[in-house]
Amino acid sequence: MIEAMDQGGLTDSSKVLIEIVDVNDNAPVINVMSFSSPVPEDSVSVKAQDGGSPPLSSNVTVKVMIQDQNDNPPQVLYPVQTGGSLVAEMVPRSADVGYLVTKVVAVDVDSGQNAWLSYKLQKATDRALFEVGLQNGEIRTIRQVNDKDVVKQRLTVIVEDNGQPSRSATVIVNVAVADSFPEVLSEFTDFTHDKEYNDNLTFYLVLALAVVSFLFITCLVVIISVKIYRWRQSRILYHSSLPVIPYYPPRYSDTLGTGTGTLQHVYNYELFIFVFMISTVNGQIRYSIPEEMKKGSLVEDVPPGTTIAVFNVKDADSERNGENGNVKCFISENIPFTLKTSTNNFYSLLTDSDLDRERAFEYNITVTCADEGVPSLSSSVTLTLQISDVNDNAPVFERSSYEAYIVENNTPGLSIFTVRARDADWNQNARVSYILEDSSVNGVPVSSYVSVSADSGVIHAVRSFDYEQIKDFQFRVKAQDGGSPPLSSNVTVKVMIQDQNDNPPQVLYPVQTGGSLVAEMVPRSADVGYLVTKVVAVDVDSGQNAWLSYKLQKATDRALFEVGLQNGEIRTIRQVTDKDVVKQRLTVIVEDNGQPSRSATVIVNVAVADSFPEVLSEFTDFTHDKEYNDNLTFYLVLALAVVSFLFITCLVVIISVKIYRWRQSRILYHSSLPVIPYYPPRYSDTLGTGTGTLQHVYNYEVCRTNDSRKSDCKFGRGGSQNVLIMDPSSTGTMQRIQCEKSILDEPDSPLEVSKRFRPYSVNC
Predict the structure, then answer these.
(1) N or C: which end of the chain has fewer CB within 10 A?
(2) d(Cα 91, Cα 71) in Å, to the nearest integer?
(3) For the chain, what is the largest distance between any 2 Cα atoms, rounded to a whole number of angstroms?
(4) What are the two backbone dihedrals, phi and then psi, of residue 531, each rounded to the nearest 5 degrees?
(5) CA distance 608 to 612
(6) For the chain, percent of residues with pLDDT exceeding 90
(7) How far apart (Å, rounded) are the C-alpha atoms in residues 673 and 120?
(8) Which residues face 444 on adjacent strands?
(9) What is the C-alpha radius of gyration for the chain, rounded to an integer number of angstroms?
(10) CA angle (666 as vertex; 661, 670 as ends), nearest 5
(11) Mean pLDDT for the chain?
(12) How confident is the model at residue 84 (pLDDT cuts 50, 70, 90)?
């Protein structure tokens, strides 16, 4: 607004509109409200430019911080969850409180608090028996295992991270509370179904193939043997010159209805009975009775004031009734005895204090008697008194307690330590015997661990100790003398078992399975220090025997990988390139620090590739064992089917032939044909006539007794009549008839002839 005014006081105003034209004199200002980007760079430079002429611009640097998110659940490395696992761990019934059952090993690939893991026992067969460490995942017993605990224990452990929201993984641990594996086998049948099926399929196939093959070969051998036997019989009959013997079918005499009551067969049996006499010799046990103490000796436990001896003193001057006849007696000092006088010069020797044979076992008491005459006359006598021992001292050990050390895996019967006790008494009362007091170690009697020599006190190991099962135990040894009643004292002995490097390291991860194709994959974009995998191993020994070190023993390319000496991490030591082969095989040796050291070897298969199809063609040799097992099962089934088919076919043929022959014999049995003589093949030719007629006629006289084996067969003279007379209606000769009808192959079969002949007679 523009205002104008003159001096007269009059005013006037007018509005002026001024438009300001913009000039490009300000660069853009970037105000970042929010930003998210998946780029992996550390910082991003952003440029903002306006549309002026000339254009103005400004730059700003944006630093991208990628924050971790809890998007990965924990991965359980041990125990490995396989469907065929029988029992993950075994807990002996002697396990004490705090016994380490196993340890759940899990990792989380997240970082920060998202990777902090905690372990909780979700379910358990007996919650009052096991607990899981919240931070370390160790499963331990929280009370003493007893016989009432069931064998089959199933624990469900949940591994949970500390993310928001948290992620978790569950692992099932199968625990068997038992001292031996056969005790477990019957309880864990549901866990072993798949594994037993896979493991025993090949065994049962081989067993079935062997049984069927054996039966088939046995059948063939029997058939060939029978054929050879019959062939030999036919050859013997063919070359023999025996006359024609008529063939009688079974029970032929009964079928003809003669009713002669002839005996068909007679059998004799011989029976042998063996009698065994068992005699028993009774032993006798002799008992030695210790010799009794000698009587009449002074025992050390007599009370003070006990009379030992009474004696009378006489002086010849006493008859004059003067001082010369007064007698006084006394004994030596510093002995526990005293003299007591009585009337008529009688003196009693008494004990003045307690006697102790352990201080003095013999006293020489000198009694001196003197009169009161002038000069005084005296005489003395020495009494030797032996003190008999009384069992008043118990054995005393040299120490109040003992500690002994023994290295595990010892030989049973090894001497561990010697305890000694002394008894101040004498002879039998001082004879010390050592006794192992009854007690238990983890529920097992201590006598199954150690024994004590009764005479010497030497402690021997009864069994071989295992530091991993028991680290120390203690017991009490009693020392008892031979007195009556006996006295005793006790001492505690603690045995410390020292660890020995007797267990090699156990590789928990990666799990070594024959069917695994590739353990780990490394992308070709992996940089230096890329973590390929981590070898996890444990050693059940203790101390320096359990310190583990990891070394790369073999590798396809040693310049590409390295193994951490202490942690077992396998990392790349250079940039992976396109020239690196896909198939990488690493052999890692895990060694403990014992003397001598023990080691375990694990093979890690690594594929340097970006995709799995690229790997598949390279790792074909890893499936060799699996293909071999599959092919073995196929060929076993095929062989079993072929042999079974041949065996069943053989049985069907044999049964068919037997049924056919049985039917033929039944036809002959029920027929009314007469008895036909059996002619060996070419019988007429062997006689040299060639006419087909019989040259000689034979009459047979047969006499039988009850014992057919002892019967005599008498051959009569040749008769003039024909035994075999042909029917007039028949026009053919015997040779012609034989040519018309075939003879069966078997030598024991009857000859069937279509022509009828009249029966011949046999004189018996």
Answers:
(1) N
(2) 37
(3) 206
(4) -80, 110
(5) 10
(6) 28
(7) 97
(8) 441
(9) 58
(10) 155
(11) 76
(12) very low
